[in-house]
Write a structure and sequence with these properties.
51% of the residues lie in helices and 10% in strands. Helix 12 packs across helix 13.
Length: 599
């Protein structure tokens, strides 16, 4: 039985507080005779129902609920997730609804739709026409979120990060540099354009909240460095921030803005527009600033209301770096609780344009669960607990193990390629800078592959056992791509060693064939052909996952990297085969590194 004792109160409003008497609190009791959930609001009842689902033990006809009595409430009133619609692929309406379904299971109550130019605006037909959500799509997404007690909030950029606008010649003069990324607030046309945008967006999004960006104003930063911290550039920043804030406040909105520029120049904090909520963001847990004093101190000192914004480190990684993500979420939340932060926003960025976002779902769940509970997440058992809730009992162990091994594989690869493994994946492994670091790290590359292959094995078993491919196929692509990355960067040192064994001159035909040509360039399986096969087999799987999550926008650009990877190995195979065809027994052999480099 579900019993609501107050108003519906489906969504969070400004000024909410957590606690046992809050709008979202609920009581749940399971006895042999009945199950009862009671709450003040529909949101509380909804969260009680989610907990009931998590309590179920067993599957299908064997499923049971334990006898239990629970009184539960969130530790933070605002528990958001921000998903990037602009830096990389554009999720479809259906995919955003899947994300909302997923986040609802973890009791999130805010969804920040990050848009630089990814929302249709009337009167701007040239603004990103292939890469935006229509107003009707946005309206349906908002309604869908409300049904799941999630407020869909626009997370905009209204100062910097607007190259999509300024690359259009009609609007290029509004930037402070030719075809730049930032508005020129001194241009009177800027406020006219923003007034139009703000009116449309305020009408489109019924949420009382809006985030207006104002982060990473690199061009104004250059002016500050040239003229000093007290120069007009900072005053210009404050003026633009105040103008945009007031325009939204005229529409009744609670305005939020990112705080990186504010805390970099703390003298401007006292001049922030009244009513503004600052959002402190940072995506790693620095060992020398575990309490994030650099990011929170100037805000706390002036009594500025604020959120904290950690992130899931997946925007330039082959697979999410869950270790970094979980540590960042845990420590930033702990710091935010000490600083009396109003809420949390968990970031899902797509900077490298290659990300399969579904791989980040465990990180999204971690952020939402951590914001609800007052104690730390049981991190060593998180994957097991996550998989138990998400998958049938006979499958969950495979999924948990796969996630653990996938995360470990990504960590091993980072020891060789650095943190941005997805970007490094496409680099030339024979380039001297990379080649120098590969020889001493062959053990890490082997571990990368062994862990990735273990993850693959468990994912294949889970899928064969009937697991939902929607959440697992992208993980399988990630595991296979990690395996490929390990193989790719193992290959140059192995080939150089084979080359060295041959000697300084080309040997007789039998030895040349047996010890080099058949092993390295022969089309019927060899080192290079193995890599050609691997990348071409993965390409259609990656494309299929992309099309399952995203619109076709930027797909061709993403696949261009895969095509270039195939071409790299094909050309290397061709160069080595041409050398084999044109050289003769007794000829001096050049260094393989030189032969591998394109002329």
């Amino acid at each position: 039985m579900f019993k609501r004792t107050g108003e519906v109160a489906a969504l969070p409003l400004p000024g909410e507080h957590p606690g046992p008497t809050s709008r979202e609190a609920y009581s749940l009791k399971v006895t042999p005779d009945r199950t009862e959930v009671q709450a003040v609001s529909s949101a509380g009842l909804f969260y009680g129902a989610q907990t009931l689902c998590q309590l179920i033990e067993g599957d299908a006809a064997d499923a049971v609920l334990p006898e239990v009595e629970i009184h539960d409430w969130p530790s933070l009133a605002y528990r958001g997730t921000m998903v990037d619609m602009s830096h990389g692929p554009l999720p479809t309406e259906a995919e955003i609804k899947r994300q909302l379904d997923f986040l609802a299971r973890w009791k999130a109550n805010q969804y920040y739709l990050y848009s630089e130019a990814s929302i249709e605006l009337e009167g701007y037909p040239l603004l990103n026409p292939e890469g935006r959500l229509s107003k009707d799509e946005v309206r349906r997404i908002i309604a869908y979120g409300r049904e799941r007690h999630i407020d869909v909030i626009p997370n905009l950029e209204l100062y910097a990060h607007l190259h999509d606008l300024f690359r259009v010649e009609e609007y290029s003069q509004l930037s402070d540099l030719p075809h730049g990324v930032e508005f020129n607030p001194s241009d009177p046309g800027v406020i006219a354009l923003l007034s139009n945008w703000i009116g449309q967006l305020a009408d489109l999004f019924p949420s009382p909240f809006v985030c207006i960006g104002f982060d990473e104003t690199f061009q104004i930063e250059m002016a500050v460095k040239q003229q000093g911290a007290s120069a007009s550039a900072t005053r210009l920043f404050v003026k633009q921030l105040t103008d945009v804030t007031r325009l939204f406040q005229q529409h009744g909105k609670q305005v939020m803005a990112w705080a990186d520029i504010m805390v970099r120049y703390p003298e401007i904090v006292a001049d922030l527009p009244p009513g503004l909520i600052a959002v402190a963001w940072y995506y790693t847990a620095d060992s020398d600033d575990k309490e994030y004093k650099h990011w929170l101190g100037p805000l706390v000192a002036k009594g500025v209301p604020h959120f904290v914004q950690p992130g899931v480190t997946s925007w330039s990684q082959i697979a999410p770096d869950f270790d970094t993500s979980f540590e960042n979420i845990d420590t930033f939340l702990a710091a935010g609780r000490k600083s009396n932060a109003l809420g949390v926003i968990n970031s899902i960025w797509a900077d490298d344009g290659q990300i399969l976002l579904r791989m980040s779902l465990p990180g999204m769940a971690y952020g939402a669960a951590a914001a609800w509970q007052s104690t730390l997440i049981d991190r060593p058992h998180f994957f097991s607990n996550y998989a138990r809730i998400m998958y049938p009992a006979g499958i969950s162990r495979d999924v948990a193990t796969a996630l653990e091994k996938l995360s470990q594989s990504e960590t091993e690869l980072q020891k060789v390629l650095g943190p941005a493994t997805q970007s490094a994946l496409w680099e030339d492994p024979f380039f001297p800078t990379y080649l120098k670091g590969l020889v001493p790290n062959q053990g890490n590359l082997r571990q990368t592959r062994l862990l990735a292959e273990e993850a693959e094995t468990h994912l294949y078993h889970a899928l064969a056992s009937g697991a939902d491919p929607t959440t697992l196929n992208s993980l399988l692509v990630g595991a296979r791509l990690l395996d490929y990355a390990g193989q790719k960067f193992q290959t140059p040192p192995e080939l150089i060693e084979l080359w060295g064994r041959i000697g300084t001159t080309r040997p007789d035909p039998d030895k040349w064939w047996n010890e080099w040509e058949s092993q390295v360039v022969y089309q019927d399986h060899s080192h290079i052909v193995d890599l050609i096969d691997a990348i071409t087999e993965l390409r259609p799987l990656y494309r299929a996952e992309w099309m399952d999550e995203y619109s076709p926008y930027r797909l061709a650009s993403a696949l261009g990297r895969w095509d270039a990877e195939y071409e790299y190995w094909r050309r290397l195979q061709q160069r080595l085969q041409q050398f084999s065809d044109s050289s003769h027994e007794g000829d001096v052999l050049p260094p393989l590194e030189k032969l591998a480099q394109e002329p």
